[in-house]
Amino acid sequence: MDGTLTIAVHDFIEIKKELGLPLELDILAGIKTLDENLQKEKHKHLQEIEKRLAIKAKPNEYVVEVLETLLSQNKKIAVLTRNNSTNTEITLNASGLKKYFKDELIITRETCPPKPDPDGVFLILEKWKAEKSETILFGDYIYDLDAAKHSGIARGYFDPSKKFIYKDSSDIQISSFKEILDLIS
User: Fold this and answer.
1) Are 39 and 67 in a shared domain?
2) By the 8 A CB rule, do 101 and 78 touch?
3) Residue 17's domain spans which residues?
4) With the C-alpha atoms ordered 77, 83, 88, 92, is the resulting torsion angle positive or negative?
5) Can you give the CATH number for the domain in which 125 is found?
6) Alpha helices in 20-134 (DSSP H)
7) Which whole-number Å values give the CA distances from 56 to 41, 95, 138, 151, 183, in the listed order?
8) Are residues 125 and 176 in the same domain?
9) CA 178, CA 147: separation in Å to the nearest integer?
10) CA atoms within 13 Å, Cβ hemisphere of 80
11) Which stretches of 55-163 are DSSP H helices?
12) Predicted TM-score (pTM) above 0.90
């Protein structure tokens, strides 16, 4: 969701600094290393940071056209995010994207273990009654690509910078949703 459907605004290094977490670990892993009381405090603080960013969410260019085209073709779509449900809802509403997704197909870190764990992908496949071979996950980070890999589905890598540092971990690379729109239209 963040950085794929919506324009990337998260500065993860700054978030880790604000939370006082080790810079070498991802945010959720860093919080998990703390004692239980401190974990609760850091999760609450993280929620505040994520909310501050969520209310500013804007869709990436051509995302709306891609979602509308997919739905008009009776394709199935879902959100799989490491964010929590409250801030996911805020992000989707602020960006105007909420109307495209059924609530039961918005999978957050509260629904399943966060990516790169593949459980969220398996849950979506189960809800869709879809085959792995018919499914692709698009994301902007290695955790997205790893979740797709570990679940056996195709890996789409979105990188508007065109650097594609995770190219070897993906099956397809795009730098704009216009590329997807051109493929599906």
Assistant:
1) no
2) yes
3) 12-54
4) negative
5) 3.40.50.1000
6) 27-32, 36-54, 63-72, 85-95, 119-128
7) 24, 8, 22, 32, 30
8) yes
9) 24
10) 27
11) 63-72, 85-95, 119-128, 142-151
12) yes
